[in-house]
Records
---
Amino acid sequence: MGEHGHHTILGFDRYAFNFWVLMIFTAIEVVAVALTFSMKGTVSMDVVVFILVSVGIVKGVGISAIFMHLQGDPDSRVLTATALFPVFFIVVMILFIGLTHPGAADTLPDWCRPGFYS
Amino acid sequence: MEAGGDVFHMLFDEWNFWSAIVMIIVSVWLFHHSLKYRAKDGKSMGESCDEFIPGVFPKENDNLKMELTWTIVPFILIVYLTYIAWGPLDEMWSADPDAHEIGVTANQWFWDFDCMADDPEDAETIGQQNVAYNDDGEVICEISTIDVEGETKPLLRVKAEQSLAFIMTSNDVTHAPFFLDWGIKEDTQPGMETRLYYTPSVDEVGSSLLMCTEYCGKQHSTMTAVVEVFA
Amino acid sequence: MLSIHKNRRIITIFGLLLVALIFAPSAQSYPYGVSGVQDAGCTCHGQSLSPDVVPELEGLPIELEPGGTYLLNISFTGGPSGENPEALALGGFHLWTSAGTLANVDEMVKINPDGSATHNGIDATDTGQGNDQTEWQVEWTAPMDGGAKFILHTNSVNGDGTSGGDYYNRLNLEIGPQPVEQARGLVVLASAIFLMASITFGTTTWVFYRRDPGAFAWERFWPFLSDYLTSTDHKKVGTLYMVNGLFFLGVGGIFALIFRLQLASPGNDFLTQDEYNQFFTMHGTTMIFLAAMPMIAGFANWIVPLQIGAPDLALPRMNALAFWLNPAAALLIFTGIFSGQGADTGWTGYAPYVVSNTAHSGATLWVAGQILLVASSTVAGINFMTTFCTMRAPGMGWMQMPLFSWSMLIATLMLFISIPAFGIGLIQVLLDRTIGTVFYEVAAGGDPLLWSHLFWYFGHPEVYVVVLPAFGVISEVLSTSARRTIFGYKSMVFALAGIGILGFIVYGHHMFTSGMSPVLRFVTMLTTMLVAVPTGIKVFNWLQTMHGGSLVYRTHTLWALGFLVTFTLGGISGMYFPAVAMDLHLHETYFVVAHFHYVFVGGIIFGLYSGIYYWFPKATGRMMNEKVGVIHFITGFISYNLVFWPMHRLGIQGMPRRQHTYFITTDEYFALPAEAADWNMLITIAAFMFFASNLILVYNMVSSGLRGQKAPSDPWGGWSMEWMVSSPPPTPSHNPSDLPVQQFAEIHDEGEPGLFGRMIEWMMIPEESHGGEEE
Amino acid sequence: MSYGHDDHDHGHHHQHSHWGPHDWEFDYGHGVIGGAPHNSWAPIMIALGSSLFLLGFTKVFTQSWNDANNVWDYAIHSSQIGTLIVGLAVMFAGFFVWWRQDWSFDGTYEPKAIGTPFQSIDLRKVAIWMFLMSEMMVFSSLFSTYIRYRTGFDNCIELFETTHAAGGVIEPGTACWLPASYFIAEGGYHQENANAVLQFMPDTLIPGAINTFALIISSYTIVLALKTAKDTSLSDAERNSKVGKYLLTTLALATLFLCFKLIEWFVGFEIGDHDHPIFYAPSLMEDHFTIHASEYTYCHLYDEAAHACTPGYDAIFDIRMSASTFYVTTGTHGVHVFGGMVALAYMVLKAFRGGYTPQNAVSIEYFGLYWHFVDLVWVLVFPAFYLY
């Protein structure tokens, strides 16, 4: 796919650019977590979780869009559709299996009960 | 005595009625079409048959109005049935605060009931004998043994009109007590507590066999007990 | 032709493997099993039985008094015991009795969980622990009725702390009236499966012989066989799948017949509880995974490339790999069944029983076998999805694909998305049972509901995967027999897609009583109610297809109409479960068994039989015998309904499923009404009739395959592309250099695509020009 | 039982060797070349091999029930390794046959999609994407298990703090969740003697970080291998060697990843002498973070001087669940990396033999898609298991 034209981002070669983005973000991730644990108690875990999640999403989009040719190729649109197809089933699985551990909810919320309306 | 509680029979009759209607419609439609549109001599083509040529996608044969009707009408029936089925959920799943709690512990291949007497000194804990009283001294729950086909099995006697809350757990694998006459069952999961709320009515007086209805190994079928409702 | 030079290399490879296998120490076979060692049950130290060890059992009366207790002295003389003065142990014993109960009088004897008695020596070097003496005492209470059989093993030990140089002997004793010797369930099963295997092999050889008897020679048999073993042609792999599927349908049927004998009357003891548990587990696993899915894969392999105008499947060798993983998995799933230790966990294999010590040891390999089936389904899924997406004939757009191919597409998609969840659940159970992870170990906080969720996330889409191809067959058969296009092609496709999506969010209805979180019970109750609507649309469309047509009555038409009746009944009885209040009564009763047999057998098996009669001429070039077919339909339909309709009634009366016996009402307690015993007897008899009626199909396939009259390329006047090629189709099915182009009976000009159409267009059609916009 | 006449002697007319050419180049005569069946022993060998392997696996790890204290005795019966080795041998022989038949494929007949919407996309690229969809479901099942258990359990550290603060006594053996990040990101209780150059980061986190960087670099080298394979301006010899070298670096990085992971699990890193090491990252086994750790002594406050846990600040927890989910999820990812390594070994051989011309470069892209997916999974697994 030696296409011309759009294989550079901000002037750099898109793969090299993506590579360095990934390296830098991984370093951020590791350093953030290491700092949090070594300075116990100063940074709350939610900040770390937020960093991890956002960095994870950026790296994920980077890899799939550029490295896996899901963007900028003639066939990338239909392959993106194929790649995103299982997302519905993954969301159902995470909701139905991941977030319903036994202690999670042991009674039906009131608005689900017929008594609530009569 | 009859298997299944009144809630079950109310819903069951409703479902039977609508199932009969749907089945009649389908059967009449099926037999009428399969007999009326029979090929007389096996070769003749009916007036509105389609000419099939291999490799040629045939003419369209659909009618939007009909297809919409047999999408919407069953949907309405389903919504109606869901509404009816939604009714009993309330009393099935709501904890009645002053219900008397009965502990049900399932083990590999025997049941272990516990009347959880309100104040301990009332409960004579001699062997299996375990009794609980309500405020005005009447016995509301009593455990003893009974002989089922040559083996001694636990007998749980509960008082009619007394609202009960079964607190169920298991010591090893999943089991499930099936109260045949009341038409209810719930799994006893190890490491978890599941609950069943029921108030036996007066006309459910009598004793019925309690069977294990979640596969639990070798003697799954002989893991029985007897539940007796007394006036 | 495989030259001898290559033959030798293959023979050496397999010879080497066999030798390696022999040297690899084989699994220690458990004492009880087909060989009848069950009664003795002692893995004595010494390997060799020697006559000079004389075991004795005194204290048994001449005249047995029912219920009496007797003090028995067990002793032995002879053998190496006692010769070496500073012996660590002198001997041991194992006493098993067929009736009554053994009890120990001193701590020199211990009673095992299965009721037999042994010396209390923990291990050989233990002194003063019951294995450093040569006589023991044990108390036996006689049963209330009938006599008893004793088997005593005594072991004379030279006390050197090792198991070498010890000898044992065995003594059989009988007292009182002996029950008539029954054929043991396992022996019946072993002979039945051996019979099935020899019939299949015999038929294959006979078919090879009958093809051209003149040229019959054993050397040509190996090339004929090896052509199938190594074939990657979608037609040959399809035939392999069908043979595999029908064989295991027979084996699954045999399991059912044997435990139906057990359930024929209450309190029956033809099968022990262990054997019954193994048989219903193996019946479920075999029927779904080794019979129904391979038969559907057989149809898919045969018909899909022909229907969509492809020369073969996208990845031919992956196709063969997907097939061969099935028999490889069957090997593992069935291990242990003959040693009496097969999996006894139910086909759903609920945790924590499947990882508990009370489950049989065969369950580990049963789980490992199913992991291979997951691999096979994933590989097949990749293959078929690629074929559907990329290899449709030119001009055949998505909305021009025949409905059987559409149903296979949605079925493969559902299977392919849901089966990894099952695979991960199985791997977790396999690791729990082998290396000791604790996914389902309750003591370590393992959650049994996780297995139910993972299993049924796969389980419910799985039952749709199995039934959708039958829908596809019925759409094809009814449309061709009634000589009318299928009514509402577009709504049929959208109904299939609807089932595909809804199938994933309804699985909670299997777990209404399992303590799952109530929110999920409520959500899945609503979605399960909804799932009936798309299936209803399909049934009404089938019925309307026959309107104005001229129905040609062939066997496949009869089976299709039979399907419409039984599947509709099954679908309606299924609607009783979403109402949670009713499900609390009906769950795990025979009403559930009745429902899914109406949908499985009445739906899938009838649909596949209709498909066999419909496509047999295309696959083999021979017409099937219609008269034998009608007999098969009539006997099959009647006996099928006799077997499964009464189960509804038993279910409402509360007969639990998966139970070795059932209880009839007595005056102390209310249980099943007396009529339940008669219904069960009827079900057993009808089950034997239904099994016999299926053999008519086997006869019909084998005989008309060889002597049926020649079949034209389009015997029934169908329109889809498989009727364009000759029957049997050439290899490759459609010539890759000039693939058939899809024609259209009426060209309806597609207007300007609406918003939805434009979005699909934007996504689906690759942009031609490369100068795409700069990002 | 196909009853058609035994179609013409199934010999291959001009086929030069039994092992090739590739499936899709089957000559039906009179110039028609196309994809068609071509008998191969590979499928049946791989299937039987995997069946024997699983039989062997269960025999090696047969466990026995210990009646006395009601627990499984896990044992490794190494004497039973025979069937497992035979199974692996047969499976590998099957793969060998499979690739031997693919060896001579030079891209002349790369099948393209016919029907919309995948018009003219390489057919095997669609196959790889279907495979990745299935893999997505595999890893989302593992993640669902992880999320379900992690939200279901209470964290050991918080449990200790709350009960300790309330003066309660923790009953030994309570099941709670001690995340792997306690051992890796926090360096466990003996964090003080880890005098890493970076001071703020415990030594134990460094191998994990290096692994992540290794995978990202290997993703990049695969992309470069693909670019050079497609680069028509290079001479054949030069291109073969460059593509070969890039693939070799990817293989090396993948091996590094697996070695670091296994060392991190079982062996541990130690540079310098034992009592004051320059770099000391004990293995997870050494820290007793194992799937059998039902009695893990957790030490909340480590008394450096006495080289022991300050009395009253330790408790006995059952942390087997966090260990099980950690080892199985990272193990499954490890198996996928190993699978990639096996395929890479084949591709390196083929690259140096000149197999990847610009016309056949697309098969590197297929492997690249799989490899980037494995890297993408690590992008999610690494923070979830190592850092949080």
Note: The mean pLDDT of chain A is 81.
---
Amino acid sequence: MHGYLVFVGKRLLQLLAVIFFGVSATFLVTHLSPINPVEAALGRMTARSVSNPEAITAMRAALTELYGVNEPIWSQYINFWSRLVQGDFGPSLLAFPTPAMTLVMRALPWTVTLLTVATLITFAIGNVMGGLAGYNQNNRFLKAFGLVAIGIQPIPYYVVAFILLILFGFVWPILPISGGFAMNVTPGWNWPYISSVIQHATLPALSLVLVGFGGWFLGMRALVSNVVTEDYVTYAELAGVKRTTIVGSYVMRNALVPQLTALAMALGGVFSGTVITEQVFNYPGLGSLLIDAVNAGDYSLVLAVSSVSVTAVATAIFIVDLLYPILDPRVRAE
Amino acid sequence: MTQNNNAEILKVEGLKAYYQMNYFGVEREVRAVDDITVTMRKNEVYGIAGESSSGKTSFIKVLAAAIRPPLRVVAGTAKYNFASGPIDVAHATPEEIEAVRWKHLSYIMQGSMSVLNPVRRIGKTFQDFAQRPLGLKGAEFESRVVNHLARLNLSPDVLRAYPHELSGGMRQRVTIGLATVCHPEFIIADEPTTALDVVVQKEVLSLIRDIQKEMGASVVFVTHDMSVHANVADRVGIIYAGRLVEEGPTRDMFFAPKHPYTAHLVASLPRIGDRQQRPALEGRPPNLADPPQGCRFHPRCPLAVDKCRKEVPPLETIGPDHRTACWRWKDVEPLVNVSAPSGEMA
Amino acid sequence: MDRRSFLIGTTAIGALMVAGNGLALAQEAEGSAPDLAQFPRNETVIVHNPEGVIRNPGWFNLWANGGGGLSTGLQQLTADTFWYIDPDAGIPEASENAIYYSLAEGPWEYNDDFSEMTVRLRKGIMWSDGVEFTADDVVFTVEKQAATPGTGWYGAFSTQIESVTAEDPYTVHFKLKAPNSRFHTTFSVRWNAAWIMPKHVFEGVEDIVAFENNPPVSLGPYTLHSYDPNGTWYIWEKRPDWDKTTMALVGEPKPKYIIYRNNISTDNRLIEMRNGNLDMIHDLSPEGTFSIVQQDPDVQGWFPGFPYAHPDPTLPMAVFNLQNPKFQDKRVRWALTLMLDARAMSMASYRGAATLSAISIPPTGTHPRDYHAPLQDYLINFELDTGSRVIKPYDPDVGLQIAEMVRPQFGDQVPTDPEAIRNSFGYGWWKTDVQAAEELLTAAGFTKQGNQWMMPDGSPFTISVLVPQEGVINRLGVMIAQSWAQNGVQATAEVATDIWDRTGAGDFEVEIGWAVETYGGHPDLAFFLDSYHSSFVVEPGETQPGRNWMRWKDPRLDEIINKVRGIDFNDPKAIEYGHEFVKLHLEEMPNIPIMSYNVFSIQSNRFWTGWPNAENPYANPVTNWSNAKYIFTQISPVEGAS
Amino acid sequence: MFAVFRDLIRYNIEFAIGLVLVGIVVIFACLSFFSPVDPSLIYTTIPDQPPSAQFWFGTNSRGQDMFWQLSAAFRNSLVFGFTVAVLSRIISIAVGLTAGYLGGWVDRVLMFINDIFVAVPIFPVLVLFYFVLRNNMDSLTLALIMACFGWPFDARLIRSVALGLKHREFTRHAVFAGMSTRKVLLEEHLPYVMPIVFSTFMNNMLWSIGLEVTLAVLGFTNINNPTIGTALYWANSHSAMVVGVWWWIVIPVILMVMTFIGLFLLAMSMNEYIDPRSRLRRMGA
């Protein structure tokens, strides 16, 4: 138990470091930007209507105060952190004066759900199929499956998502291609809503799964074909241990340990994929929010989305890392 | 040490087991086990010696009923005579083999470090291995295992441990425990002491010996280390190039080997007070895909004559329980003066 | 199940629960739950709103910027004000000269010096909560916003209005701080206008800038039914007492429900219309339009044939940043103009479906009659001194040439009559004259080294051309940059997603956008021209209010603007002053006008029919304009479609 | 090294296929050096022509000959991927060898930094850089930024090999012979990690080209520069697929899939061949 606590402590330290460096980098990069957030905000607010100069001057003063841009950078930095720990990134421009954080929190559950479900499915399918393929190396079906995996795996998220959109939205329109849920349902714990959410998430999730499972499949297949030659597997086979036990608890279980590390490392990439997928399917998550924010030059919102993504991904990695000792008792002892 | 009157537990007759491989369209056949006939008795420790890639591992695989492609039994039988009935493991169905596994026929694998699943608690492994053959459940099973472990000087705590939490010796004892918990009639021990330090090695050997005696089981003990054989085996068989070349009571084999290869193996044993390197046998073991004509040992044999190059020597009985396959067995002299090896050979 | 499996299982389920709860929490159920049968297609029109995701979807306060949507149906279906000016002809029996008298009973009434305005209101108009609309609402609207910075018309009201009084419940009297003959346009809808606030709702609100106004009390014929908490659709339901709104004067709106959907990518729009999930699309790409019109016989554009698109009364142009030293010499601006090829720009941007304009007036609505045709001779004889000779740069036949270029592809869909060609392809544009451009640049002190123009200070002449990320304006900009680059100017198209912001902030060299917008159906130019007054031009680095993006300052311009301010909206002199403006613009070339902004708005006749088009131009089909609401009175469900 | 390649081509069908696929694409990309048209110009030919004898890959709605357009696009993308791979290899070799050889706190610090880089989601970071740099974000800048994020995974791999090498006989000899750390790393250890470097090189190219496509499709790169991503961007902004100009999307996607599968197969087969574990086992570590 002590070993585990040390392990958790180390990881926690790392998590904090990642968040600190990531968010600081986010701050620095945005504050070195040539974009003056005040003028950008003014430009946006006055683009559609003719405002008189006095009103603009007043607004400029208010925004300058709000963004604190006339202060030296280190004081802005301290300010930034002190507001950040309260979850305050300032108002968004996209939805002025709604706080950027409100928008992020509204979008976050969609991304988290999509990402969690897609990752779990991907991880499960890839590893189970890969494990079986590594164990039964002569199975025709699994061999064919492997070829498909090699074929799809290297294609960028965008292309797969787009092909799905064309196939299921245009050629054979059976699934919804945009939005999070249909217009005629009430959000909440009711079946029409849930089924609508599932339907709308199908194509985005499918595109993530299609791109993702190949990597797990190939990795697991290679790992398993190594593990099956291990003595403890041979020995268990000689002892007549049940085949399902061997495949599950001896082969897959051991091969899963490095796969879990790989999962932690892959989460950042999966997040990138989610951004694309959301954009293609107009899904209301963090990704499309980020893209909107960039397109609108929304300073606060870009900062908020980036910081939250860094934190969220780092936290997800942390959680996966915490699972690691459960899978590998050797780590617990160290 | 002479328990000749005991009944036979295993009778291997004319066993041929080949690896059949296909490299880039070329069929190759490796004759790993080439016509071995041997008998093993109840309640004895039979040592098998031989260099690596001599075919002893393949032979063991057949005995352990672990025949997997590309290894195939081409001819012969390997009949066990278990309490539950006779079984020819060379030709038995998987179900028949399943029925005797671990309950009657068990196996101690080499490499104590890697035969235990690193992510599974020892107790779980015991369940996986022994629950089905024992037909016990819950507390009954647990007490059986705990009692058995006690016999091996292991506390019940190991059941909750992971392999990496145990020392090498403990792990080996666990492995022996795994193989013997079902009180099998026949135990195959494949290099169980390799990679252990000398003290632990000794401890493990006596443990195997004790357990064997206590349970009245038969043990096939495989190692290339002749000194180990000297310590535990009742009889020793030497395998060279897929064939049994000599077989006899341990004492005879060490003091009066009747095959040049045996003589060499015995001579290469290190002894206290050695000043120089033991003479090494020249040449390498033959390629089993294309073994030499006649006696397979002839290219390396100091006594080889023309006949040896042309005709295969049969396995002749030359004394009580002593058989050899050499045209010139009468000319074989021990290469060094061997004093009686220490050990429990009473 | 052992402890570990249990642990992993509960972790996974826990994660799902958290995510699920998060979703449910984020949504906070809005409205009641209708089932699909509640939106039968013969009672429901589905409209595409070009806005992106509405990030603060629960914001319905039209009078303060709170991140809500505007053209989600909110301004089209629930808002109202005194007058509407249609960019097209208007519904004949309901409008006069494209002007609808909406909350006002008749036209604006000024005193002689335009310092006071009286409006007579209609009687019996009801807010959707049953309260009658009266002059008090108008007075509240003006006084509240004039006193509250941060509201939409704070600037317009506080700087212009001295006082507003309700003479009786149906008469409002405005006293202005200074004479303004265009004051009524503040309350005249083009895209939008100063909407009237419900006094009974807002008077109890302490901070109206932070007030969501959810659900909105409607002055229009529809009320909010439900909306997407993620901000991608809004559903509106017809009021039972729709006949108590000004819409009743035009006709009964036919759909029981109107759904506005936003944040649909270009491809998805086309797919969704093909799948029967959209009736009106705000805009498509030219290629998308050509394709869907061919594939789906139910789909229509504005013109029955090529070029299909609806011309907006806006004028895409290359806007010079006149505060940048590179563009302060008009010879440079003219040289850059003469490097362009009208045919290439038309083909590149609209595949030929563009209406060119050499002058700073959009060639749409009634403007060709008032400006382009009368000025044609002036343009033909227009002379330009290149420094070494005098040339006549205008080419009146360029439209005919483009018509010939597209004829092979579109055949008899392209008109043959020269008059019709002028109307759809434009009256003419400048001849490409690289020789003259070189003379102009040389005269301005530029030198040519190899194929590269150097500025008088010796550094290479580089131009960053700011273009939006997509659409026809992007293509136009890329073509313009390419033309300049081919003629020795290092011009590159810079794609900016925040082009509006950068335009306003003056953070550009040349921007492809528009600084000219008009009413379309009315010759008055004050809508954009008034904002060109030098008093509005700001210093570099600050944000420029409205339309004069090039920050053009000229005393002669101020003079024209002052003259326009002194005459009535309907005074024929307005056209004369407009001609003066055009001539001044040609002399200075502060921006290069290119063509009208043609919007590929399309409609499907699958479930509803009776949409406006060039043959029956009763309304603007561009869905986000407030005056598009009149369309709903003219359409009818298709028999048997479902 | 060449013997390795020869063996791989002869005995590893995946490697051979990968080589052929990548070879085709590279040759195609090299053709752009002989392109008769400037790929940055638009409306140089009749738009929307399907593939024909005159236009092998058709023409797009921007009036560009797709053959030459894609040739230039693939050249730029491959060069881009190559640049990122080279730069990030340099970082990962330096970090991996140093951490593995020196061990101790240097190792711990380097691996700590390494883990931070692994945990930062690259995509939002790239978008952030685009947000800040806008049009100053040319291919080289993007390559530099991506190289800064493309090394940590491979550095770990190299470190694990270096850890094994550290205790090998020849290392001790070298140290006793008085070789400097830098020399030991560069002359003694580098050759052992080169195979890994080559295999991760392919993977890294795959990764960087894929990311570039992603960014470009969203319009977050200089879209005037022809690359695989911008080709798709323009096709998309002209609704190419739904209006039936399928060749504008299908052909680049086929070529891209060829490139990606080719690179992937090369990386995978080399990886199998030189799997660090089996390699170390063979070396007797």
Note: Chain C touches chain A through 82 residues (CB under 8 Å).
